[in-house]
Write a structure and sequence with these properties.
Number of strands: 0
Largest sheet: none
Structural class: mainly alpha
Number of helices: 12
Shape: globular
Number of domains: 1
Order of helices and strands: HHHHHHHHHHHH
C-alpha cells in the first residue's frame, strides 16, 4: 500500500486533478475560458514554487526523509508548472480570439514577460530527464538555474496584469524568505571555512 501511495503515477494523477477540472469546465462551456486564465496561471506558479522550495529547505534542515521524497518529485513539479503554464496560455488565446490583438498585446510588457517565462519553462521541461542531463553535463544545471529569472518575470507579469501585488506576494514571498535564509547559511559556512584556513596553526 505504501509503495502505491509513493508511486510517481499517483503523484502525477494528483497534480493533474485541477487541470482535469478546468478542462471539463471549459469543455462544458467554452465561455468560461476567461474565468480559467487566472487559476491556471496560479497553479503554474504554485508548482514552480513547490519545485524551487526543495533546495533552500535542504540547506536549512539538511537531509530529511520527507525532503528526499520531495526532491524525487521535483522534476514532476517542474514539468507540471510548464503544463499549467501552457493551459494558462491556451485559455488566454481562446478568450482573446483575435490573432491581431494577440500579436499587439504580445509587445506589451505585462504580456511578453509571461511569454518569456513560459519559454524558459518549456526549455527546462524538455530537458528535465536523465538523458538531457547526461548530454548537457554542466550546462544542464545552468539551464535549470534559469528558473530564477523566470520567477522574476512571472512576478512582474502577475503584478502588471492584475494591477496589484498582494496575491503575487502571498505566493512568492515565502520562497524568497527561504532563498535568503539559504544564502545566509551558505555565506556563514564559507566564512567559517575561510576563518579556519586563515587561523594560525
Amino acid at each position: 500500500m505504501l509503495r502505491f501511495l509513493n508511486a510517481l503515477p499517483l503523484f502525477w494523477a494528483i497534480l493533474a486533478i485541477p487541470a482535469a477540472v478546468m478542462l471539463v469546465t471549459f469543455a462544458r462551456d467554452p465561455v468560461t475560458a476567461f474565468d480559467l486564465v487566472h487559476p491556471s496561471g496560479e497553479f503554474s506558479v504554485r508548482m514552480m514554487i513547490l519545485a524551487m522550495m526543495v533546495s533552500p529547505l535542504r540547506a536549512i534542515f539538511g537531509r530529511r526523509r520527507w525532503l528526499d521524497w520531495w526532491l524525487a518529485r521535483r522534476r514532476s513539479l517542474g514539468v507540471a508548472a510548464f503544463g499549467y503554464g501552457m493551459l494558462h496560455l491556451v485559455f488566454y488565446l481562446y478568450d482573446m480570439g483575435d490573432w491581431g490583438q494577440i500579436a499587439e498585446e504580445a509587445l506589451i510588457f505585462s504580456i511578453w514577460t509571461g511569454y518569456v517565462a513560459l519559454l524558459i519553462f518549456a526549455a527546462m521541461a524538455l530537458t528535465s530527464n536523465a538523458a538531457s542531463q547526461r548530454a548537457l553535463r554542466r550546462n544542464w544545471k545552468r539551464l535549470q538555474r534559469l528558473v530564477y529569472p523566470a520567477a522574476l518575470l512571472i512576478a512582474l507579469h502577475w503584478i502588471y496584469v492584475d494591477g496589484e501585488w498582494q496575491d503575487m506576494a502571498m505566493h512568492l514571498v515565502p520562497l524568497l524568505v527561504l532563498e535568503v535564509a539559504r544564502l545566509i547559511i551558505m555565506f556563514n559556512k564559507r566564512s567559517g571555512r575561510t576563518g579556519q584556513q586563515l587561523a594560525p596553526r
